[in-house]
Amino acid sequence: MRIIELTEKTRNNLLEKLLKRSPNSYGQYEQTVNEIISQVREKRDEAIFEYTRRFDKCDITRDTIRVTADEIQEAYAQIDPAFVEVMKKSAANITAFHEKQLHSSWIIPKEDGTILGQKITPIEISGVYVPGGKAAYPSSVLMNVLPARVAGVSRIIMTTPPDASGKVNPGTLVAAHIAGVNEIYKVGGAQAIAAMAFGTESIPKVDKITGPGNIFVALAKKACFGYVSIDSIAGPSEILVLADETATPRYVAADLLSQAEHDEMASAILITTSRQLADQVSKEVDAFTAQLSRREIITRSLDNYGYILVAEDMEQAVNAANEIASEHLEILTANPYEVMTKIKNAGAIFLGEYSSEPLGDYFAGPNHILPTNGTARFFSPLNVDDFMKKTSIISYSRDALSKVHKDIELFAEKEGLTAHANSIKVRFENEK
Fold this sequence. Notes:
Layout: E1 3-5, H1 8-19, H2 30-43, H3 45-56, H4 69-78, H5 81-99, E2 106-109, E3 114-122, E4 125-129, H6 138-151, E5 155-160, H7 170-179, E6 183-186, H8 189-198, E7 208-210, H9 215-224, E8 229-230, E9 238-243, H10 249-260, E10 267-272, H11 275-291, H12 295-305, E11 306-310, H13 314-324, E12 328-332, H14 336-340, E13 348-351, H15 357-362, E14 388-396, H16 398-402, H17 405-414, H18 418-425
Parallel strand pairs: 1-11, 4-5, 4-7, 5-6, 7-8, 9-10, 9-12, 10-11, 12-13
Antiparallel strand pairs: 2-3, 3-14
Helix pairs in contact: 2-3, 2-8, 2-9, 4-7, 5-6, 5-7, 6-7, 8-9, 10-11, 17-18
């Protein structure tokens, strides 16, 4: 891996390069995506079936688009029973963590006749997109579905592309069944997003769409936002390791590669205060890469977005980490908890050398659907609140309103909204 001294210039150059990976930088695909969405809105099922034939080489109909109970049982037969048990354990951890995020409705009456409150209601229908083929990840099914289930969403549907024979990845089906998906439809790509956003004869319109996908899926979610809620427009995966001289080079190298293997756009960055650690990690990266099955992807990823930055001190390192606002942030220092208190921007923080990033990907319980491309500065991981609506409650008695009605009327009149003022004034028009 390339080793660079951390300066203001190198930090700014890195930030600029990382931001170019955002889906917002791929406008050349927007026309194609918009055409697909338009066709699905106009022709509905007919368009979905046509795009599935074109892109997935599979003929589906209204009779075969929905996954059956028999297909789910068939999927269980194809999956290692030990893996099924691991998925169930993971699902239990994810559920337990997200149950801590639940909030209750509240209402506060006052003696003056004022009642204020907040009513919390789950959305009715949630839609989950799951990629197919080599990008099928059962862990993402659990992470997308279980927060919605914990929130109380009554109907959760999933779309995922079929293979040429009309089959869906068995791991995806088993994970969906464990998580409690109500309906699974065999459709992928931008057309699946459009179907969930607007509805077709076969696929219901949903209130929110979550889940990862390729650039066409990401741009389709962006185009449909407003007609439907979405989780985020996710960019490529990324990891940042913050380490000092106490870190184990072999662990750091392994953790960097855990994200570099995702795809050639993934970023893996080490910021360290130790030049010796930087040199050792670089050598370990080379040794690991030569052995790993996805070494070609890893090599391209590291060539594109792999960096080891050597900082003058931990303060400079932390400042750079906050600027980068990485999806995953590992802190491998003598006192990781102290360093953690100085971190303002990160999707998920992993503390200590036995808390490597895959722990969060698969098992610990916190959601692995995290903000990317610096959006951790203002976005959060997927959580129960994403599937909840908060409605305000307001009730005033006549006595309570009488004490403030002139204030409200004045406010409305100063904004030039005389009908607003009259709506209050008319209730006291007989008073002198």
